[in-house]
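Q: Please design a sequence for this.
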């Protein structure tokens, strides 16, 4: 009974420390002015509060991603999300002045969400959508993973102690989920992996259930196929992760 008591006390203390280590966020919403001759822009993102280095890093990286997706291609010296929104609107007006009949329905949206956080890790996902004419718009999901102790954004490879092992495991699971034969080309059923070799997506991150892999439109499949997702539970993923980034299950 005494051992059980100390075990439960340790778990409670660990949970308490983890909760105390979590950042505080507030939801920020940005919109452009509403008018008959303006594109629609709506940004909803989590903003880390406080003056810590990790809060500053998280907000800076989120802003950089939004600026990249909002900034009109001919713009320069865009240093804030608000300036990027103005750049998108200016791009619309320039396009409309030259191609009035085709300047219809321009839109930009972004929504951010905390997908996972513990004392060491933070994963944020940004879902973006832009439409600047043509048959359809462009959607993209971006995972941002942070090491909260080192105050840095993590590259995908930095999460793993055995990256090649994880790639092999992910390929097996991907083939099973997509009903691709175990032997032969990964593109046997119509996928478009470069060189017919399986690879991880550009975006992967942590969720409550496991490591989520997201292949965005055109990354390995056609636009019509949409995003291709794969979830690898922590019971399988932990063996490949660096010890610091393993998630208790």
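A: Design:
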């Amino acid at each position: 009974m005494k051992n059980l008591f100390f075990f439960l006390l340790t778990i409670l203390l660990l949970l308490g420390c983890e909760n105390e280590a979590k950042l505080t966020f507030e939801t920020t919403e940005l919109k452009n002015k509403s008018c008959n001759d303006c594109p629609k822009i709506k940004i909803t993102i989590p903003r880390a509060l406080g003056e810590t280095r990790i809060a500053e890093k998280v907000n800076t990286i989120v802003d950089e991603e939004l600026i990249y997706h909002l900034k009109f291609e001919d713009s320069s010296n865009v240093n804030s999300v608000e300036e990027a929104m103005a750049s998108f609107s200016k791009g619309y007006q320039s396009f409309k002045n030259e191609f009035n009949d085709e300047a219809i329905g321009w839109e930009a949206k972004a929504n951010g969400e905390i997908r996972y956080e513990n004392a060491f890790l933070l994963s944020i996902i940004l879902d973006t959508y832009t439409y600047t004419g043509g048959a359809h718009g462009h959607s993209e999901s971006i995972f941002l993973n942070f090491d909260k102790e080192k105050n840095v954004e993590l590259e995908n490879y930095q999460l793993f102690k055995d990256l090649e092992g994880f790639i092999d495991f992910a390929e097996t699971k991907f083939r099973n989920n997509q009903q691709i034969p175990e032997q032969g080309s990964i593109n046997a059923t119509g996928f478009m992996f470069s060189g017919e070799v399986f690879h991880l997506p550009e975006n992967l991150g942590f969720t409550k259930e496991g490591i989520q892999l997201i292949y965005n439109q055109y990354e390995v499949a056609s636009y019509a196929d949409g995003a291709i997702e794969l979830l690898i539970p922590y019971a399988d993923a932990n063996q490949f992760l660096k010890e610091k980034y393993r998630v208790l299950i």
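Q: Thanks. Anything notable?
A: The chain has two domains: 19-154, 157-245. The longest helix spans residues 2-21.
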